[in-house]
């Protein structure tokens, strides 16, 4: 007899959960839908983001190239000055 009471309680809880979940699904379906024509183009935004990222990378590469060139010239100048005698610079 006691197991029949547990079974009825379990069935009642299951029915209650189904009702709650059904109501939650109904609320989600009643939301407003934005038409595709008025939504922003996701691909366009991704493309613009990638363009900006590419410009930043180009700028960084140019700065690194200029910095590398400066460091190479400085190293060449040091090497040149180290191998020349001091009295020949006068």
TrEMBL record:
It is found in: Secreted. InterPro entries: NICOL. The gene is NICOL1. It comes from Myripristis murdjan (pinecone soldierfish). Residues 1-26 form the signal peptide. One of its GO terms (molecular function) is RNA binding. The keyword Secreted applies. Keywords: RNA-binding, Secreted, Signal. This is NELL2-interacting cell ontogeny regulator 1.
